[in-house]
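Sample intake sheet
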Amino acid sequence: MRFLVYQTAFLGDLILTSPLLKSLRKSFGNSEVFLFVRKGFEDVFRGFEGISVISLKEKSPLKVAKLFRELSVDVALSPHRSHRASLSLFLSRIRRRIGFNTSGFSFLYTDRVPHEFKRGIHEVDRNLSLLKPLEDEFEVIYDREPEIPVSSTESESVVEKFSLKRPYIVLAPGSVWHTKAWIPEYYGEVAKFFLKEGYRVVLVGSKGDEPYCQKAWESSDRKSINLCGKTSLREFFSIVKEAALVISNDSSPVHVAVSLKTPVIEIYGSTVPDFGFYPYGEGDIVELKGLKCRPCGIHGRRRCPEGHFKCMVDLKPEIVIEKALKYL
């Protein structure tokens, strides 16, 4: 059989699709699995046996559908809930198309699976539920561990390239959404504490995260190592793999850490763990409970709608440090 998994969302969502890919490989060992991803994410699952990655070069559903038809796929599964995903798969004439009932144009799927949100069900399990319709015909073997293939040889070479001496802690202060980003100066305070304890501290993030990382670096008395915007995606993975601990906002570095079996502390502001993006492995969460305004949005916001930003301002560095010490 030939399977197609459609996931053109951002990095964290893509990583949380890995258990679905692994389950397909375990359940249908001799099958081919094609993964359709956003351009720039072709290397995320490099080394993942049995997975052929196709990047998104065309946005037109007609052109994407033509590409899919050429693959002669038997079953398509779409964790991505966009109208474009539903339409592209429908136009591809793939015989069986499985998606969520909350997807745009969900009526175009042959099988619709309930999308359970805001009940604490993890995104990993939501994605795996797309395999349920296949249980009537096949024995489905579920693998629930997120994974990114990074060898020790690869990670060691990256650590050497950036002259990182262990043990070190990774801080990821950035976020696309302001209300999901803990105060950068608080990250700086955490960095100063662990620097005094003998750890090195590495700041990571994309080019867009540089303002957050810069403030955190300056607040650490410029003694942390600021690699924000200076690494490739694979280099970022390697740095996380070799870290003693990762501290991050509710963002993709959390899922990178879990997939590489690195302990992680996840800091929540405007979003909540019940959305299903908490660490699916060794890790912990930090949040300010009891605020009636939380959550104020599914994805975060550009600014605090209440104007006080208490969910982050009142979450002091000492709270995060106390949690982190349990893993060091």
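Comment: The chain has two domains: 2-136, 152-325. The chain has a mean pLDDT of 96.
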